[in-house]
Amino acid sequence: DGTFRGGNPVTRAEFLTMLARFDNTEETIKQKAAQDAGRRSRTASLVGDKWYTDYVVVSWDSLIYPDIYDREAIVKPMTRGEVFYAMANYLWKEDIRPGGKYYNMALKN
User: Fold this and answer.
1) What is the spatial distance between Cα 2 and Cα 64, in angstroms, rounded to a whole number?
2) How far apart (Å, rounded) are the C-alpha atoms in residues 34 and 15?
3) Are 54 and 33 in contact (CB under 8 A)?
4) Measured in whole angstroms, how far is the alpha carbon of residue 35 from the centre of its chain?
5) Alpha-carbon span 102 to 81, nearest angstrom
6) Which residue has the higher pLDDT, 48 or 5?
7) CA separation (Å) from 75 to 3, 23, 78, 84?
8) What is the pLDDT of residue 44?
9) Cα(82)–Cα(40) distance, rounded to whole angstroms?
10) Which of 7, 6, 14 lies closest to 86 in space, CA to CA?
11) DSSP 3-state assignment of 64?
């Protein structure tokens, strides 16, 4: 509904939307999702073709367990470990890889 509701828990779909919006405009998100039509089609078949599908496409590479995301899982709350990994992988890819400063923390979580 366009409101933030900062005190509410966040679903995976909502978090991935926030992550995609972090450094992309709405137009860029639509363009990126359209450019990778194959990924968008696969994502829509997994999580449904909903308001969040383009955002999930843009932030898909940040997911630690992308194979668990289906129509049910995408609208459930994320764990702290998932949030940490997604943020680190989206924002600091090199830091989450072996030898990176967040690698051990990600491995433990």
Assistant:
1) 27
2) 21
3) yes
4) 18
5) 12
6) 48
7) 17, 23, 9, 18
8) 94
9) 22
10) 14
11) coil
